[in-house]
Amino acid sequence: MYTIISATNRIGSHTEKVAKEYQKILKTKGINASIFSLKNLNVLEKNPDFSKAENEFLIPAQKFIFIIPEYNGTFPGVLKAMIDISDVKRAWWYKKALLVGVSTGRAGNLRGMDQITGSLNHMKMIVHHNKLPISVIDKVMDEDGTITNKSTLQAIDQQVDEFINF
């Protein structure tokens, strides 16, 4: 099972749109993937809503695609808080991760992907080498949230193919 994590709690974010694009691309390759969005999720404490989401999206997944926006040169605190309240052994240990950085700037959250890699490795996750920074996301995506830039789509397609075989 694949789970795509939209790693922000912001409503209407580019991150969620990119997560939906990855879901569509996986579907064309015969893979059904769920999207686990952090919006409207209380991650300050373990609660019944989080436990339900953890049992539905995290624990059964073997592969994760993290869509991570850049927040002040790193990844969102809501992502770290979500990881911190999860059952680390059941949700993360020995599972595989693919990282996608999203920013309106020029670096595509390279620093944030490097920083989260250290945390994921500490949790015994296997992180795929092809970490894709998607820069100027507001320029490569149309108003409906569809990525229209051909080179970005090619990079995503290659990354996803590699991850499927990973």
What attributes does this structure have?
alpha/beta; six-stranded parallel beta sheet; single chain; 43% helix; 166 residues; Rossmann fold
Question: Would you kindly provide a written description of the structure presented here, covering whatever features stand out?
Answer:
The chain is of the alpha/beta class. It has one domain (2-164): Flavodoxin domain (Rossmann fold), CATH 3.40.50. Helix content is 43%, strand content 17%. The protein has 7 helices and 6 strands; from the N terminus they run βαβαβααβαββαα. The chain has helices at residues 14-28, 48-58, 77-85, 88-91, 110-122, 137-140, 150-164; strands at residues 2-6, 33-37, 63-69, 96-102, 126-127, 132-134. Strands 1, 2, 3, 4, 5 and 6 form a 6-stranded parallel beta sheet that branches. Strand 1, helix 1 and strand 2 form a beta-alpha-beta unit. The protein is globular. The mean pLDDT is 94.
Specify the structural class.
Answer: alpha/beta
The largest pleated sheet is described as: 6 strands, parallel
Radius of gyration: 15 Å
**Quaternary:** single chain
What form results from the Cα inertia axes? globular
- Strand segment tally: 6
Q: What is the H/E string?
A: EHEHEHHEHEEHH
CATH superfamily: Flavodoxin domain
Residue stretches low in confidence (pLDDT < 50, at least 5 long) are none
Counted by DSSP, the helix tally is 7
* Percentage of residues in strands: 15-25%
Give the second-level CATH assignment, the architecture.
3-Layer(aba) Sandwich
Could you name the CATH class?
Answer: Alpha Beta
Query: How many angstroms separate the termini?
Result: 14 Å
Write down the overall mean pLDDT: 94
Q: How many domain units? A: 1
CATH topology: Rossmann fold
- Provide the helix percentage: 40-55%
